[in-house]
Every structure is written in C-alpha cells, then in structure tokens.
Write a structure and sequence with these properties.
By secondary structure, the protein is α+β, with helices and mostly antiparallel strands. The protein is 40% helix and 36% strand. The chain has a four-stranded antiparallel β-sheet, covered by helices on one side. It is elongated, with a radius of gyration of 15 Å.
C-alpha cells in the first residue's frame, strides 16, 4: 500500500492510499476509522478526482458516522462494564 496524500481536516485525519488498482480513503478519529475503496478506473482525474469527492457534504456525513460509531461503542462498553 502506497500513501498518496494526507489532507488536513480539523475533525479527523484523512489519508489517501493506492493499492491493487484501488484508491483507499481512510478517515481516522481517535480509535475509530472509516475506509472507502474506489477502483482507480472509476476516477477520471487520479488522486485529484479523490480530492473532489471529499467535499463538505461528504465530510459532514463522515463526522456523523463517527458520532454514531462512538455512541454505539460507548453503549456496548457500558453494558459490559
């Protein structure tokens, strides 16, 4: 896996990788992560096409998913404490 770029964001770390003819976009926030894989052939402008995908609407959805993930983990942790 080859790291292509790291994008600054105030809420999470964004890293773009290339592996097996796929772009991998990884979002990390604390101990949680979300990963999206996209075939390189589906993106016309290479890594710049990936940058265009990561817009405000997408990052808001990513942030909401992190909140849901965190809530689910805390709830299950508290049930088994």
């Amino acid at each position: 896996m080859r790291t292509l770029a790291e994008l600054p964001h105030p809420d999470f770390k964004i890293t773009i990788f290339s592996m097996n003819q796929k772009f991998i976009i990884k979002f990390e926030q604390g101990g949680l992560e979300q990963t999206y894989k996209i075939a390189e052939s589906d993106i016309t402008d290479g890594v710049n096409g990936i940058f265009q995908l990561i817009d405000d609407d997408f990052t808001k959805a990513i942030n909401a998913t992190f909140q849901e993930m965190r809530s689910a983990f805390i709830a299950t942790y508290n049930r088994h404490e």
